[in-house]
Amino acid sequence: MQKYSIFNLIKNAFSNHEKWDLAWKDPTPKSEYDVVIIGGGGHGLATAYYLAKEHNITNVAIIEKGWIGGGNVGRNTTIIRSNYMHDDNALFSEFGMDLWRKMSQDLNYNVMFSPRGIINLAHSDAQMNVYARRGNSMRLNGIDAELLNREQVREIIPMADFSENVRFPIFGGLMQPSAGTARHDAVAWGYARQADSLGVDIIQNCEVTGFDVSGGKIKGVRTSRGDIKVKKIGLCVAGSTNILAEKLNMTVPIETHLLQACVSEPVKPVLDRVVTFGAGHFYISQSDKGEMVMGGDLDGYNSYAQRGNLPTLQHVLTEGIAMMPFLSKLKMLRTWGGIMDMSMDGSPIIDKTHIEGLYLNCGWCYGGFKATPASGWTFAHTIAQDRVHELNAGYSLNRFNKGHLLDEKGLGTKTWIS
Amino acid sequence: MLHIKCPHCGMRSQNEFSYGGDATIKRPELGKEVSDQEWDDFVYNRKSLRGKHWELWQHLSGCRQWIKVERDTATHEIFKTLKANQEIS
After folding, report:
1. How far is CA B41 from CA A214, A245, A310, in A?
2. Which of A174, A233, A312, A322 is the most buried (most CB within 10 A)?
3. Which tens digits make up the pLDDT trace of A44-69?
4. Residue B44 lies in a domain
């Protein structure tokens, strides 16, 4: 594979950039693999990459029904953070932050990681107390956190509404300076390119139609492009977990829901942080193109439609305008929807299952993008070693049955029970 | 926007309703020995079907009654609505 570098850029300029290698190949599926990863999203691609890189398992296929990066890794609002209070979430996410910082170098692909900081706004004294507690917990886990008062917030985001007679006045906020954003498509493409170069087969337009399970063990997977014999399968299909679980006669603690996001027309640089509204559910950042990238609540009912309805969007943007009134002057450029694996406690699942050789990675609610590298890394470990890593030990499948819920209020903890 | 036909009030917009999840989930019977697995299935595990899905909605800003709605989760088309005490046929 050609390395992406300034020298190769210049060299290829002489051939009008027409002779670059393909970023990844388009192989036909073989009849047998050591590991098959189902789902060519960010997590699936990252898993295959770390299987090859960290565990030297290269006879691997990624099977994707559509095209790689066409699901939620291409539909999110690109926020990366580790501002969690509970140890399991905090340590997992902070491990991921480290991978994010090295990602562009590691993948030889510019993922445009921009650690611009995230501010969660507080709108009451009580909320300031909660944020102080969360900030302290984060610091104890080695994550940077700063509690800001009203004036400090005003200095950073003067365009927010600081007038006196508002329904939700800004009391202050909790900032994680090392949080930020990244170019989401580049993450998928970067992982795909490196996984491919390490020998992983990326098989697109290939739908899983069934599984061969006998004696409680995985024997193979049936697809629209033929049957594949395999001993280990990693299910990495957040948004379609329920559908594939049904083919395995499993029920999972997950409901599939719809989440919308939107961008405004591009404007000059105005917001250089990620900001969340604390009196509702709304988050915003500005993309490199100048668009305001915004999102908020789920539409609130089970759905597999990758498009939403207007009432939720209206509700979310009302919160946005309450927080930053200038947004009301902007025109909306684009809205879209994605389908979310909403787990019953708002935390994900990365675990083995009762079927030998079947591994489950799901339940990302709406926090999946930031978890891409850590999820891939720990899932690869779980598959390769046939045991969970201590970083994903808290993300067990049986925690619901045992009552060990991981009930972080990361917003998204409840599906329809809100 | 969804338009839901409340069996009590007639056709109303989605804004008046709130969602209540899968309508086919049954609470384990009272006074019976219930295993952890049965509780698990009742409280947490869901099929979350793609396609026709019977679900509960509450006409919160209307008659406040709970109703059952059969809706396609892929297209959002609504086929049928029932009062809460009517059995799904």
Report:
1. 24, 14, 33
2. A233
3. 999 999 999 999 999 999 999 999 99
4. no
